[in-house]
Amino acid sequence: MLRGYSCRMNKFILGSGINGLIAGYYLPGYTIIGKINHSQESAEFPLGPRFLHFNKHTAQLLCDLGLDDCNLKTLKIGYFYNGSLHDEVSEKLAIEYFKKTRGDHTTKFDSAMSGGKKSITVFKTTMQQLYDKLLKRVSNIVISNRLIDENVYAINEISKVLITESRARFSYKKLVSTIPANVFFRLIRSPIMAAQFETKEKVFVRSRKILDLEDYDYVYFPEANEIIHRLGNTDTGSQIIETDDFGYRALAYSQDKDIVIYGSIRLPNAQMTNKVDVIEPNDVKFIGRYACWNHSKKIGEVISDVKDLCN
Fold first, then answer.
1. Residues 262 and 163 placed together within one structural domain of the fold
2. Is residue 6 situated within a structural domain?
3. Is residue 290 part of a domain?
4. Full domain range(s) for residue 24
5. Which of 18, 26, 269, 299 could form a disulfide bond with 199, CB atoms 3.0-4.6 angstroms apart?
């Protein structure tokens, strides 16, 4: 056990991303283990459109955190095909987009490509603002040892022991995991289970403006021959291109002088490409989209699931 940490700690949350901090906020008796600021919220530029959907759970959380003065806004979603922008997309093109981004070996997620919606209502509060506020609030909770700023190296499921990267050992009675399911099952040395969870790499590229999005906040490119998956504007006038390795290489080596790349970020396991009915080990609860391997899970449902653990 790390020096200075209480031997009475026996309830832990794996992961210090936004889902881990939400769990820590509602579960003050738990200790969070995870490298702080190693999440999508801390990237050097926005990783595509990331926003907080409006519902009663997210509204209450913002109110509790003192962020309730932030107004709602409506994001307009567009679809680029046949050489122009459109308000809607056909089911045929939706399937084409899914196969392009996930592969053709699995059933299309209804939540993919924003569910084919024309618009969504979200808070003006950014995910970074929410993350920063949660981190500050969790860190300031009076209970000591709320955050262990390192990742877990291995989990002994039989003896219920967490082993950190510094080889510190913590016995747990209850465990909430917000890390991706494939990572969790690798940590408990279950390669057969881990292999069920299939992913693809995402590459986010910050570039000079390549397309006028008109009044759309972000735009999907469903056609299979388009290397761009999604495109959005930034506050600085640049645009964020979401693509894969092939698309990035095509952009990087393009002879088109209008394509100017300012930076790129690769996320190796960011795109879940299949559905898996996750079986939770004893005394472990999975929370969040990647932990549950359920693409449709949003922050509101995460809050609801965590609150259920309080009862």
1. no
2. no
3. yes
4. 11-66+125-196+277-310
5. 269
Residue showing tokens 């618009």: 119
**Six-digit token string for 67:** 């962020």
Identify whether residues 133 and 254 lie together within a single domain: no
Same-domain status, 110 and 137: no
Query: Can you tell me whether residue 50 is helix, strand or coil?
Result: coil
Percent of the chain clearing pLDDT 90 (strictly above): 58
Residue 230 CB neighbours (<10 A): 23
pLDDT greater than 90 at residue 46: no
The CATH number of the domain where 149 resides is what?
3.50.50.60
Task: Examine the domain organization and report whether 137 and 267 are in the same domain.
Answer: no
pTM score above 0.90: no
Q: How many domains does the chain have?
A: 2
Burial 255-268 (b: 16+ CB within 10 A, else e): eeeebeeeebbeee
Q: Are 70 and 128 spatial neighbours (Cβ–Cβ below 8 Å)? A: no
Report residue 190 as tokens.
Answer: 């279950």
SS3 97: helix
- Residue 5 included in any domain: no
Can you tell me the distance from the alpha carbon of 172 to that of 160, in angstroms, rounded to the nearest whole number? 6
pLDDT digits (tens, 9 = 90+) for 168-209: 999 999 999 999 999 999 999 998 889 999 898 999 999 999
Q: Phi-psi bin for 237: left (phi > 0), alpha (psi -120 to 50), beta?
A: left
> Measured between alpha carbons, how far is 61 from 22 in angstroms, rounded to an integer?
9
Who's near 64: CB < 8 A, 6+ residues apart?
Answer: none
Nearest to 32 by CA among 127, 135, 129: 135
83 & 58 share domain: no
pLDDT tens, position by position, 77-124: 999 999 999 999 999 999 999 889 887 766 666 666 777 889 999 998
